[in-house]
Structure to design on (38 residues):
């Protein structure tokens, strides 16, 4: 049971990390587009 919880937790961490990276990329892209318009 404990091993299962650890696996679920690590998978969630990986998922959150990749979501944060995707969000950061989108944010950077949006900032870049704003700067190029100005």
């Amino acid at each position: 049971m404990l091993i299962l919880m650890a696996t679920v937790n690590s998978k969630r961490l990986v998922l959150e990390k990749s979501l944060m990276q995707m969000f950061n990329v989108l944010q950077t892209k949006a900032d870049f587009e704003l700067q190029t318009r100005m």
The chain is about 95% helix and 0% strand.
